[in-house]
Amino acid sequence: MESTFFRISDWSEEDRPREKLMLKGKEALSNAELIAILIGSGSRNESAVALSKRILSSVDSLNALGKMSVSQLINFKGIGEAKAITIIAALELGRRRRAEDAVDLIKVTSSKKIFEMMQPIIGELAHEEFWVLFLNNSNKIISKSQLSKGGMTGTIVDVRLVFKLALENGATGLILCHNHPSGNLEPSKADKEITKKLKAAGESLDVKVLDHLIITETKYYSFVDEGIF
Question: Which residues of 61-100 are buried (b: 16+ CB within 10 A; e: fewer)?
Answer without folding.
Answer: eebebbbbeeeebbebebbeeebbebbbeebeeebeeeee
